Amino acid sequence: MPIWLTHLAPVSATFDSDAPSKMADGWLLVPLTAKFAFISPSKLVIVMPILALLPITLLLLSIRRRPRVVPVWYGGRDQNPQRAATTALTFSNALRTFYSFIYRPIIETERESPQDSNGKPYFTRRLVFTHDVAPIFGPYLFAPLEKLVISLAARLRIIQSGHLNFYLSLIGALLVIILLLVLL
Question: Which of 5, 12, 55, 166 is the most exposed place for a label (fewest CB within 10 A)?
């Protein structure tokens, strides 16, 4: 790319300009200041294929080594995959216990005995299980965010009107704004 600048010198000479010679300093291209020098694209063209060889080399080195295979460790116990298996409850229960101070779970179980059982709960006629969490996230976090998104969508609905003239006028307005910013 610095070579291209030398071919621009005769063209710039017709305009009494010496710009191509000021645009390069050896392999470096503009901007050249005392504090900053741009990386040379010519050097990048040379270095990037060399750097691409690094992952290929690592891949070739990893193919030669076979992966180490060892039996599964069961915490010092006898090998029994059924006893060592983890379930979704293993993780969810830990999270539920840790964050219980935030969402304060409520779990209630109500048992209804038959009328002829004399108050002895040997046979349960009906079992009602209820659970709930404190309404923190819904009304205080998600509801305001939902209202904000719905109001933004209602205001921005005009952008997706499907009218080609409106889209063209938006593009024209953006071009005028960009030109004004450049001129200021």
Answer: 55
Q: Between residues 131 and 23, which one has the greater pLDDT?
A: 131
Exposure string for 29-63, b = 16+ CB within 10 A, e = fewer: beeeeeeeeeebebeeeeeeeeeeeeeeeeeeeee
Tokens of 38: 């741009």
Cβ-in-10-Å burial (0-12, 13-18, 19+) of 1 comes to middle
Q: How far, in Å, CA of 73 to CA of 41, rounded?
A: 53
* Tens of pLDDT, residues 129-160: 888 877 877 788 889 999 999 999 999 888 88
* Peptide bond between residue 139 and the one before it cis (omega within 30 degrees of 0): no
> Could you state, in order of their start, the residue ranges of all structural domains in the chain?
2-64, 86-134
pLDDT digits (tens, 9 = 90+) for 44-72: 788 888 888 998 888 888 777 777 788 77
